[in-house]
Amino acid sequence: MPLKPTARLKGFTLVEILVxxxxxxxxxxxxxxxxxxxxxxxxxxxxxSNLKQLALGMQQYIGDNSGTYxxxxxxxxxxxxxxxxxxxxxxxxxxxxxxAPYIGSDQNFHCPxxxxxxxxxxxxxxxxYTFNFSALxxxxxxxxxxxxYIVRQPDGRYGRFxxxxxxxxxxxxxxxxWMNADTTDxxxxxxxxxGAAGATAHSGSANHSFADGHTKWLTPQGIKAMERSAxxxxxxxxxx
Length: 240
Fold this sequence. Notes:
By secondary structure, the chain is α+β, with helices and mostly antiparallel strands. The protein has one domain (18-230). The chain contains four helices and eight strands, in the order H-E-H-E-H-E-E-E-E-E-E-H. The strands form two sheets. It has a four-stranded antiparallel β-sheet. Strands 2-6-7-8 form a four-stranded antiparallel β-sheet, with helices on both faces. It is elongated.
């Protein structure tokens, strides 16, 4: 009886193995991108929750302080050169220190997408959210010697001006007036010299809290358009 020929086992060629590896790499890259987006969405949600807590704390502070907002920072006693047209003075205590007693945890002052810095929340430069002082504060002539700015007035003379919390009732459109934005750059967030916020902490956009208590994720263009339409009083009492 003749023997049947033995079947030859066919293996994978090098080309086939390389094709399989390439396909698996594409799938792995796609999965990693999905996981990264999911993680970022989670961080953005935590950040929005932080801003909601800050908004609630801000409203409680306002209720306890005759309906006025906290100031960006406390005044300084240092004397700057009056050669500057505008000279910003910043003291040690910030808005975050003012509302801290109303906030459940210091973690609410830190965005999970930002590298952790100093835990000293009494310094507004050490928290991850900026404060819209150009809308929520105003400059008034100093009467007690403390000041934030030395400003050249329309008559050419320099005057000392103090920052004061604006009254909640003074806001023309609370739902369009942002209070805190997700950025560590205080000049990008509400500076009367540079304009609206340009925060991009989360996928090219950022979370913002508003004076009516709600929070929203907005692009820099979106928040600038909203700020222009808010119609709030100017920060400076005149054009410096």
